[in-house]
Write a structure and sequence with these properties.
alpha+beta, Immunoglobulin-like, C8orf32 fold, Jelly Rolls, eight-stranded mixed β-sheet, 10 helices, 15% helix, globular
């Protein structure tokens, strides 16, 4: 499923074109009589230092005549810097030729008080956009593009056009939306609607209200703003958070009305083809247990029906027949989900398609009811013991029991079931636990060492790793894994290729790696008279997100769900007696712990870390506590052992048993231990995770 209208995004959209040229008639036409021509200021009260890319939008005008199914667009932008000439010289208009017509009205350039007509139909060509081709989605839309000649800094480009035609899948319904500001200041924004029926509307992050009137017996709605300011952007804001001044408009009275609309698309009146019926019977006969049948159906749809979306026209919303999907062995999210629902229902299992917004699910309750706000379809199953289970048939190679299959943290969703009146909150049941077991063997002080790693991935993390090793060669994995450890250690040498052990029944993957680190010891930061070795819980660092600022107005995003345990075993070259220590940092948003233990009898040091996020974000009211607690974690995140260089070659030294009175305990940064020959310091030290954190 794909959007045909942009409900949420700012005006500046970067299109990616495929260079497959198509032919489509583009027509010129006078501006429709129903359009209200808008004025604008050539020098709005906007600080040009706040303008990016050398382009200032003076006017963004969108007017829709709903009964005529016409959408008028006018954009006036000024090139404020030479860097804006490149983008300012091009015009790109997207439309779907299966149900839409494009009419060009005016293209002019205002330069030094003179207006130059730039409208030339021969400057335009239609090419197939297919911006989602890399995701195997083909929507059939075209882009009418023109690259204008002789455009200069200081020019004001003014162009307008009308697209006639609404997607027929929506019938008589209308819903749309826009934003009343942009990522940078805008001189004037105008949004107008002409409608037969009364419309519902809702604005977020703004107090702007519409002027409501009449036109030739129709109702009119008009929103206007001048010198619209950009929102305040903060680092690491969740993707679902609505930063812009969003405006939603709809004639759907409720979510139940959207469900009723969708039920006409997902009609449960299919007679399975012979091939489909045979597949259903095959799965039924494979097991008498309902859970096994559910899991077998999911695996079949995920792994045997490849993902491919042909979504032109009504295909953006209406699934192909399950019979056809099985026959062609491909489909997009709605095709695969409807096939799975159909198969399960024919086995007596209760199942429903579910509409998802893969980005804005957490804030979906702020939207007005509309089918256009959804971009994905999944499946809900209610088993015979009333367990509510969710599956995404577009994933692949998922394993485990039917009750434990990982499902993304999509937030709220709309279940297409007769009588559904509200959005349903989907709460992930996964922890996505990853356990890392590091074993360091340090035969000498100052020499090289070996690092053997065993990592256990569970649930969704196992799915991610499974997809990675199934789609990659062992040589590329070896290279990628080594590059990862190169960021933490110098001169890493691979001792053997990574080994994968996939327990599909438990949905766990164990990965074993082995490395020699030739420069494990290095100069100590801040004191080059010492050499040190550092033990880093990179398994925790992968998911830690440390803020740079203490104050916050918007939510702060966290990896979720995430649970990491990193256990480090260090085989020391001689006996060092250290005090066992435990540290716990607990907040409303996460829990962190570190435990160190010295086995003096075997000269082995154990360092165990554990980290778990409690939510997918930190609300602003809890951010100060989160910031403070995270800084506490940073102070104790890495473990160092260091020794004077003069003692590095003295491999026969050993520390005596320490008297409790000699140990000062933990200061802000260090745990001190005193040896016979100089000072041997073993410490929990501050570690900057900002520059070393690996991406999840």
């Amino acid at each position: 499923m794909s959007f045909k209208t942009a409900l949420l995004y700012p005006f500046s959209i970067i299109f990616i074109f495929s260079f497959n040229f198509c032919f489509s008639q583009i027509t010129t036409k006078k501006t429709p009589s129903w359009v209200s021509i808008q004025s604008y200021e050539m020098h709005p009260n906007i600080d040009l230092n706040e303008i990016s890319y050398g382009l200032l939008t003076l006017l963004s005008d969108e007017q829709i005549h709903i009964p005529r199914k016409e959408r008028y667009i006018r954009v006036v932008r000024k090139i404020t810097d030479n860097v804006g000439v490149q983008d300012g010289s091009s015009i790109s208009i997207n439309y779907d030729p299966t149900y839409q017509q494009l009419f060009l009205h005016e293209i002019t350039v205002l330069r030094n008080g003179k207006t130059v007509n730039k409208l030339n139909i021969n400057d335009f060509q239609s090419i197939r956009q297919e911006s989602n081709a890399e995701s195997y989605i083909y929507d059939g839309s075209l882009n009418a593009i023109a690259n204008l000649a002789d455009i200069r800094t200081g020019d004001i480009l003014d162009f307008s056009y009308t697209i006639k035609g609404f997607n027929p899948i929506h019938g008589k319904h209308f819903s749309s939306g826009t934003v009343l500001n942009d990522f940078q200041p805008v001189g004037k924004i105008n949004y107008s609607l002409i409608s037969i029926t009364e419309l519902r509307y809702k604005a977020i992050n703004t107090t702007i209200t519409p002027k409501i009137g009449t036109y030739n017996g129709y109702k009119t709605y008009n929103w206007q703003t001048t010198n619209a300011k950009a929102p305040d952007f903060e680092e690491n804001t969740p993707s679902w958070y609505l930063l812009y001044q969003n405006l939603f408009v709809t004639d759907f009275e409720s979510w139940e009305a959207v469900v009723d609309w969708a039920l006409n698309i997902y009609k449960d009146n299919l007679k399975p083809s012979k091939a489909l019926q045979e597949k259903i019977e095959e799965i039924k006969d494979s097991s008498e247990f309902e859970g096994d049948r559910i899991m077998a159906t999911l695996k079949f749809v995920q792994n045997d029906i490849r993902y491919l979306g042909l979504e032109s026209g009504i295909g953006a919303y209406k699934p192909f027949s399950p019979n056809k999907v099985l026959e062609q062995r491909f489909g997009d999210c709605k095709d695969k989900s409807w096939l799975m629902v159909t198969m399960l229902r024919n086995m007596g299992v209760e199942a429903y398609p579910v509409l998802i917004n893969s980005m804005y699910g957490e804030s979906l309750h702020q939207f007005l009811p509309s089918p256009k706000i959804f971009d994905h379809v999944v499946v809900k199953v209610i088993d015979s013991t009333d367990n509510n289970l969710f599956y995404d048939p577009t994933n692949s190679n998922q394993f485990g029991s039917y009750k434990s299959v990982p499902f993304p943290n999509y937030g709220k969703a709309l279940v297409i079931k007769k009588g559904t009146k509200n959005l349903e909150q989907i709460t992930t049941k996964s922890e996505d636990l990853v356990e890392v077991f590091d074993t360091f063997d340090l035969p000498t002080v100052g020499g090289s060492g070996t690092l053997n790693i065993m990592t256990v991935y569970r649930e969704a993390e196992a799915d991610i790793m499974r997809a990675r090793y199934k789609s990659s060669s062992i040589s590329s994995l070896r290279k990628d894994f080594k590059s990862y450890y190169d960021t933490y250690y110098d001169d890493v040498e691979v001792l053997k290729d990574p080994v994968f052990d996939d327990d599909s029944l438990a949905n766990e993957i164990l990965v074993e790696e082995s490395y020699k680190i030739n420069n494990l010891w290095g100069p100590m930061v801040g004191n080059d008279k010492n050499i040190a070795v550092e033990f880093t819980p990179y398994g925790v660092l992968d998911v830690l997100v440390s803020p740079d600022e203490k104050q916050r107005k918007t939510p702060f995003a966290l990896y979720f769900p995430t649970h990491r345990k990193h256990k480090i075993t260090v085989k020391l070259p001689t006996r060092w007696n250290l005090k066992n220590e435990t540290f716990n940092v607990n907040s409303k948003s996460f829990d962190f712990s570190l435990k160190s233990k010295m086995n003096s009898a075997k000269d082995i040091l154990y360092i165990n870390y554990e980290y778990k996020n409690k939510n997918s974000y930190v609300p602003p009211e809890d951010f100060n506590e989160f910031y403070t607690k995270m800084k506490e974690v940073e102070q104790i995140l890495a473990y160092y052992i260091y020794i004077p260089k003069s003692e590095a070659d003295n491999t026969s030294f050993r520390t005596p048993d320490l008297d409790e009175d000699l140990v000062s305990g933990i200061t802000t940064l260090f745990l001190w231990a005193f040896g016979i020959v100089g000072v041997v310091v073993v410490g929990l030290v501050a570690y900057s995770i900002g520059s070393n954190r690996a991406k999840k």
